[in-house]
Amino acid sequence: MIAGWAIVTGVIELVTAIALRREIENEWMLVLGGLVSVIFRVVLAVLPGVGLLSLVWLIGLYALVGAVRVLLSGVAGFLSNLFLILMIMLFLLADGPAMMERLRSSAGEDHPRVGRLTFGGQSVVRQFGLRAVVNVATAAGVTILLFVLGVDFPLVWGVLTFI
């Protein structure tokens, strides 16, 4: 019964990964889970006398691979979103003055909304600059404190504090 379940879920995962390879991210993890299911089925078919302890170890390994797959896909999704957000922020900060010049030339220099947008944009840039300075100072303090206290990897904790 377990062997039948493993082969069915393995084949379904492999077919799903192949069919949705352009639609989902990290489809290789789904392929890996499907292959583990099929290998699990083959081991049970070849070694029918496998003891209960061996079966428990195989189920545990299968669950561990599934958990790692879910964890890695979540981390990969988070990191890709973080990278995208950082790139958009850098683009907006770098292109801010040029966007304001285009707005002034299209709406006119004396338009009231241009003045408000200019003030708002300058406020946002000041806020980001102030936040970066505060984060650097806090991260440096945390790194130095953790180094003095002998905590492992103080630089890593400092970088995480900055973020």
Provide a descriptive summary of the structure in words.
With 163 residues, the protein is mainly α. The chain has 5 helices and no strands. The longest helix is centred in the middle third of the chain and has 56 residues, at 52-107. The model has no long low-confidence stretch (mean pLDDT 80).
SSE topology sketch:
Blueprint: H1 2-19, H2 27-46, H3 52-107, H4 112-149, H5 154-162
Q: What features would you highlight for this structure?
A:
87% helix, 163 residues, 2 domains, mainly alpha, 0% strand
The chain-level structural class is mainly alpha
Question: Biggest sheet, in brief?
Answer: none
Shape: elongated
Mean pLDDT: 80
Number of strand elements: 0
Task: Give the N-terminus to C-terminus distance in angstroms.
Answer: 50 Å
- Work out the helix count: 5
Radius of gyration: 27 Å
Share of residues in helices: over 70%
Beta content: under 5%
Low-pLDDT segments: none
Q: What's the number of structural domains?
A: 2
Order of helices and strands: HHHHH
